[in-house]
Amino acid sequence: MPGTMQAAFLQAPGRFTVEERPIPRPGSTELLVKTAACGICTSEIEIWKGKLPGLEYPRFIGHEPAGVVVEVGDAVREFVPGDHISAWSEGKSYAEYFTTPARST
User: Fold this and answer.
1) d(CA 13, CA 47)
2) Ordered DSSP codes for the chain
3) Other CB atoms closer than 10 Å to residue 73's CB: what's the count?
4) 74: closest CA among 93, 98, 102?
5) Residue 77: is its pLDDT beyond 70?
6) Nearest-CA neighbor of 35 among 79, 65, 71?
């Protein structure tokens, strides 16, 4: 699924920008998911406020997403396109699409 998407980046404490980025490609054990929603974790509130020491900006956050699988990696057997999932992702889910390891759903 080549193309671009809109994604929110935390540029500095309290300041998001929305940027156009390539739609990510799933690795062999990953899912590509069209985002339906993404929760806001309390740790991300602290990142938003700039309260955690050692943070670097810009940051691509959002690790509690849900959505619909649109593509699966070639080693994934337990999911198919069209499945609805929620996941613990490694961030990058304040975007139209995200990838996540199939084991993280």
Assistant:
1) 7
2) ---EEEEEEEEETTEEEEEEEEPPPP-TTEEEEEEEEE---HHHHHHHHT-STT--SSB-----EEEEEEEE-TT--S--TT-EEE---SS--SBSEEEEEGGG-
3) 17
4) 102
5) yes
6) 65
Confirm if 60 and 9 have CB atoms less than 8 A apart. Answer: yes
In order of their start, the domains of the chain are 4-104 (3.90.180.10)
Query: Mind listing the pLDDT tens digit for each residue in 14-30?
Result: 999 999 999 999 999 99
Whole-structure pTM value: 0.90
**8 Å CB contact between 47 and 54:** no
The length of the chain is 105
Cis bond upstream, residue 101 (ω within 30): no
- Per-residue pLDDT of 83-94, as tens digits, reads 999 998 888 999
